[in-house]
């Protein structure tokens, strides 16, 4: 299964601050960082998320059709991540709510246009 994923960024410090709070709401923290990458996760809790400056030194762009999902432990966490994202430069792609019987999610884009979902499977 997935071990980690990375999202490209053109401003590691600014994007890092944005994702620090998303990770904090979900109970995770930074697990690795250097001048090109920051990774968040929790030991023993599955996949990690990373921000990375592209190695080829070309501008990072949001992938068309790409989306990353953050697993939450409660609807409250989903709501908090969504509210935080929109208050800090993110944009709405679908407000928090049920999507079917067993899925609660909120869709948004980060300040650089990457599409994300924070979700809870019930």
Summarize this entry quickly:
The chain has 122 residues and is of the alpha/beta class. The chain is built from 2 helices and 8 strands, in the order E-H-E-E-E-E-H-E-E-E.
Structure in words:
The chain is an alpha/beta fold. The protein has a single domain, classed as 2,3-Dihydroxybiphenyl 1,2-Dioxygenase, domain 1, CATH 3.10.180. The protein has helices spanning 12-25, 75-87; strands spanning 4-8, 29-33, 37-41, 48-52, 68-71, 91-98, 103-109, 115-121. A four-stranded mixed sheet has the order 1-4-3-2, with helices on one face. The protein has a four-stranded mixed sheet with strand order 5-8-7-6, covered by helices on one side. The chain starts with a strand and ends with a strand.
Topology:
Elements: E1 4-8, H1 12-25, E2 29-33, E3 37-41, E4 48-52, E5 68-71, H2 75-87, E6 91-98, E7 103-109, E8 115-121
Parallel strand pairs: 1-4, 5-8
Antiparallel strand pairs: 2-3, 3-4, 6-7, 7-8
């Amino acid at each position: 299964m997935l071990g980690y994923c990375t999202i490209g960024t053109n401003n590691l410090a600014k994007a890092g601050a944005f994702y620090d709070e998303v990770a904090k709401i979900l109970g995770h923290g930074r697990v690795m960082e250097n001048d090109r990458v920051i990774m968040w996760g929790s030991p023993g809790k599955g996949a990690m998320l990373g921000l990375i400056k592209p190695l080829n030194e070309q501008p990072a762009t949001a992938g068309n059709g790409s989306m990353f999902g953050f697993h939450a432990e409660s609807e409250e966490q989903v709501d908090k991540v969504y509210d935080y994202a929109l208050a800090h430069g993110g944009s709405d792609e679908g407000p928090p709510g049920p999507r079917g019987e067993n899925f609660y999610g909120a869709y948004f884009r980060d300040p650089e246009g990457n599409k994300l979902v924070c979700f809870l499977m019930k």
